Amino acid sequence: MRSILLFLHLAGVIIWVGGMFFAHFCLRPAAAAQLPPPQRLPLLAEVLGRFFFAVAASIVAIIVSGFAIIGSVGTSGGFGWVVAELLARLLGPALWWMVTCARVLGGWAWASIPVPDGVVGAAVVSGATLVVGLWARSRMSAHRFGPDEA
Asked: Are residues 129 and 62 in the same domain?
């Protein structure tokens, strides 16, 4: 049973991440190079519309199989069930809030940041993420409690 759950979990991740990689780095540049915008937009809308149905099913498979894998660590009422329940209680409201904010703010022009296409765009987003992560880490390490360890 665990191998089936692991297969479902990994298949969902592969479909989601692999499909996004294909759409952004293969389909989008090829469509931009070959088709004018009046033809390109309906094509991308149709392809991504179908793809997002597969992504929705993949996300469900990832979440359900992930909780089932965590739950299978222990017996009924064991440590795995405690972890699965805590994750569901902690991540449920946060995930709902992220999706709601993305849906609302996605329609506002000031809430989106223009990013270059291709490798340059990926490098810009990766660099910005790294800078913010390092800044947050330095802020968190500056507020430690207890004696400093050298």
From this structure: no
